[in-house]
Amino acid sequence: MSLNAVRPWRSIDRRKSRQIHVGPVAVGGDAPISVQTMTNTVTTDVKGTIDQVLRAAEAGADIVRVSVPDEDSSRALKEIVAESPVPIVADIHFHYKRGIEAAEAGAACLRINPGNIGDEKRVREVIKAARDHGCSMRIGVNAGSLEKHLLDKYGEPCPEAMVESALEHIRILEDNDFFEFKISVKASDVFLAAAAYQGIAEATDAPLHLGITEAGGFVSGTIKSAVGLGNLLWSGIGDTIRVSLSADPVEEVKVGYEILKALGLRHRGVNIISCPSCARQGFDVIKTVEALEKRLEHIKTPMSLSIIGCVVNGPGEALMTDVGFTGGGNGNGMVYLAGKQDHRISNEEMIDHIVAQVEKKAAEIEAAQAASDAEAAE
Length: 378
Ligand code: SF4
Known about the structure:
Elements: H1 3-6, E1 20-22, E2 25-27, E3 34-38, H2 46-58, E4 63-67, H3 71-83, E5 88-91, H4 96-105, E6 109-111, H5 120-132, E7 136-142, H6 148-154, H7 159-175, E8 181-186, H8 190-203, E9 209-210, H9 218-234, E10 240-242, H10 249-262, E11 270-274, H11 285-295, E12 303-308, H12 314-318, E13 323-327, E14 332-337, E15 340-346, H13 347-377
Parallel strand pairs: 3-4, 3-10, 4-5, 5-6, 6-7, 7-8, 9-10, 11-12, 12-13
Antiparallel strand pairs: 1-2, 13-14, 14-15
Helix pairs in contact: 2-3, 3-4, 4-5, 6-7, 7-8, 8-9, 9-10
The structure holds iron/sulfur cluster.
Iron/sulfur cluster (SF4) is lined by residues 275-278, 280-281, 308-310, 312-313.
């Protein structure tokens, strides 16, 4: 029985969306909520862009978007796609030819608004290119670039205008028998974005790509995204997410995972539970956690680690984690394994020792998973 079955207050009922694919990555339906980011290099700097794609993928990005503003970028895209370990989404604005070139270059998805690329003939050509090359699409409505007729009708960007914009683009694709698309209705204002996503979630079964656009710098953008995306994800809305930060794309990926981890929607790497520390701490909690976060970046297996300054909360938190350390007196503390007191270790040796314990536990979890997969396959 799953934890959520015995703890219903912890479960999230995901909206039932239809499933599409971005390359090999399923989006929607019961697929895991994927984490995306976007490169911020000049796309024609192929080496720099590939390097950023690789770093984002290493951090856990399932999908990476690359801007394709001109023909040279379309050519660069082909090389980037060839080197990328994850599917690439081509970001296209207005130029239908870029859409066709990107599909031919191997993009797994086009971020393009069919209502903004010209007449019916051009739309049909882009859809044909997408279909011929197994490319899906994302309709990306943004509060900051709503169509003039909708601004005239509604007076200002509002949820109704954003939903109507999305529905107009959807109609164009569906009239052309194209259903491999997902939708985003982004805004930098969390209320506007949330209301728009709630509206479009009711109006269609297409998978939704969530984002709070232009969220800001690392700290403020992280918080805005956690509040805005967290609220939607908690209510079951969202099939793939991109956290937009004025920061390294790798940070966007990390924040995306942390939001999903906090809601139990996705698990990756070590979830460190640590106390803020105070005068009672038996060792320097803050420095230790900083060091452990860096030293454990390579662990991808989902597991938990508690690092707690003293016995006030240490044993209780350790009960619920795979590995735990609680500060004590005399320069040493207690190591917990699978929730149970196991042995003591000195503060000086602790970081190396905890890293070794976590690596050992990760290897055990992986071996158990491999054995159960093999048994299931028999
Ligand atoms: S667990 Fe102990 S050290 Fe950490 S904040 Fe609480 S009282 Fe302070």
